[in-house]
């Protein structure tokens, strides 16, 4: 199996450790990973701000860089959802459509495609899990608490394979952190209040780390933690699953 690794621009610039952990984890699981050079932003910030018509260059570049692979994997649920729902190409329409069906968020790929049942990982800490909205409600990575339906969590299932980890129970398991991409700029006060509430839930239950499948949400909460001089840290789920 040959997969292409898509590293979102903010992960590349601010959290390269999440990208490296994704690469190393996939290779440990026997996957051949390629990194297509010349990749850049998926275009989500423009689309979310009402400028989808200006994202054509991003779309064409993505299709040209990522065509021909068995799968495309990314450690970002929000970017993956955007590409699944909105990627299109005027130059290569068939390839664009194919990519939309072959791109997966990391935990989705590990659970649904590789069907991982064991991991050689150890992380002896108390960890709170943040269920990002794009992943939960868009990619269906976990069940929504307002539904009367069997509970499931793909990130949670993988984390339970990690030795010595203690997952803390939260009061509101799927509350939004308030980041929302450009929402945190357009509605700063609301975004910050939501983020403070989300962080407080983790801190009440003694989390040493907050993890999730979307580094953008973790980045938002990290800013709040740092401003409050908290000892609690954020960590991408790939870094836990790849830990020793």
TrEMBL record:
A Pfam family the protein falls into: CCG
Tree of life domain: Bacteria
InterPro entries cross-referenced by the UniProt entry: Cys_rich_dom
Record GO terms (molecular function): oxidoreductase activity
Ranges for domain Cysteine-rich: 3-84, 127-221
GO cellular component, one term: cytosol
Protein name as annotated: L-lactate dehydrogenase complex protein LldE
Record organism: Olivibacter domesticus
